[in-house]
């Protein structure tokens, strides 16, 4: 069996930053198109995780969670006990959020993985593993948006619901009572208004964009190192040329021929008797 020629292996194209960016620009629009077309499937897992977290952590506040296309709908038990003019001391308010706004990291990850030069086995493994890591990140955003609605949106939702139901006189008092009770429930579980606000901003603005890049970097450290080395070789200045041995294009079999020392000029010898007459 003949061993592979190292010269042929050296001619294989190395990964370049330009080729990677070009492939990513081609894959990202296709990934976002599929992401939007399949939006009900994309948000399925994050909505289930967020619903389970809310209803099991605070069942006295969050009654249920459901999905309607790409929207996450959750029912809140608003405590309005003590407000006169209402038929019951607890009202069920349904709020909803667009879950797709927390899931745009998935097409970003798909575009980056598909642009990375991998075989199909490793490509599908990274896509599946990356999706499994992104689902908790997406559910985190949905959970903290629900907490934000308790602090800053529950009172308005209760007042609007009571006006539509025909109880305008009790709407204002019920809104204040429900907002205070909801805030007290969150505070009793260690969730202050400041913490909820910061976590919501981070989950909404930064986390969906950062998470897929971090996951891709963790999966492809060797590829990134190769790109880094390729970029350094393009930006570092070349040193002074010292001869053919310093050239990167020199092949292994190109060797300098040994120099021959110059031959000394032949010496001329004079014979003593040359040109002289010989006596008899």
Helix content: 55-70%
Taking the alpha carbons of the first and last residues, their distance comes to 86 Å
Structural class: mainly alpha
Which ranges are low-confidence, i.e. pLDDT below 50, for 5 or more consecutive residues?
7-12, 241-252, 272-280
Count of DSSP helices? 10
Order of helices and strands: HHHHEEEHHHHHH
Count of distinct strands:
3
The rough form would be described as elongated
Strand order of the largest sheet: 1-2-3
What proportion strand? 5-15%
Which radius of gyration do the C-alpha atoms yield? Answer: 38 Å
Task: Give the averaged pLDDT, no decimals.
Answer: 85
The main pleated sheet reads as: 3 strands, antiparallel
Please summarize what this structure is.
By secondary structure, this protein is mainly alpha-helical.
What does this structure look like?
The chain is mostly helical. The chain contains ten helices and three strands; from the N terminus they run H-H-H-H-E-E-E-H-H-H-H-H-H. Strands 1-2-3 form a three-stranded antiparallel beta sheet. Helix 4 crosses helix 6 (120-152), helix 5 packs parallel to helix 9 (193-219) and helix 7 runs antiparallel to helix 8 (171-188). The protein is elongated. The protein starts with 5 loop residues before the first helix and ends in a 45-residue tail after the last helix. The model is unreliable at 7-12, 241-252 and 272-280 (pLDDT under 50).
């Amino acid at each position: 069996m003949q061993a592979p020629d190292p010269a042929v292996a050296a001619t294989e194209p190395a990964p370049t930053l330009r080729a990677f960016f070009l492939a990513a620009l081609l894959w990202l629009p296709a990934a976002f198109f599929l992401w939007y077309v399949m939006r009900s499937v994309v948000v399925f897992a994050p909505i289930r995780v967020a619903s389970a977290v809310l209803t099991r952590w605070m069942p006295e506040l969050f009654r249920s969670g459901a999905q309607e296309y790409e929207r996450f709908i959750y029912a809140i038990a608003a405590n309005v006990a003590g407000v006169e003019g209402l038929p019951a001391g607890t009202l069920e308010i349904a709020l909803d959020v667009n879950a797709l706004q927390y899931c745009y990291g998935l097409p970003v990850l798909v575009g980056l993985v598909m642009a990375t030069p991998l075989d199909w086995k490793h490509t599908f493994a990274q896509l599946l593993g990356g999706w499994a890591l992104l689902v908790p990140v997406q559910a985190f955003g949905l959970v903290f948006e629900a907490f934000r609605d308790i602090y800053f949106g529950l009172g308005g939702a209760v007042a609007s619901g009571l006006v539509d139901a025909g109880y305008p006189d009790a709407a204002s008092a019920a809104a204040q009572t429900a907002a205070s009770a909801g805030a007290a429930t969150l505070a009793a579980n260690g969730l202050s208004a400041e913490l909820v606000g910061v976590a919501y901003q981070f989950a909404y603005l930064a986390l969906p964009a950062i998470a897929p890049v971090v996951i891709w970097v963790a999966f492809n450290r060797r590829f990134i190192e190769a790109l880094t080395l390729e970029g350094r070789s393009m930006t570092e200045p070349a040193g002074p040329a010292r001869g053919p041995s310093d050239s990167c294009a020199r092949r292994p079999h190109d060797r300098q021929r040994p120099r021959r020392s110059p031959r000394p000029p032949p010496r001329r010898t004079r014979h003593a008797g040359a040109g002289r007459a010989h006596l008899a």
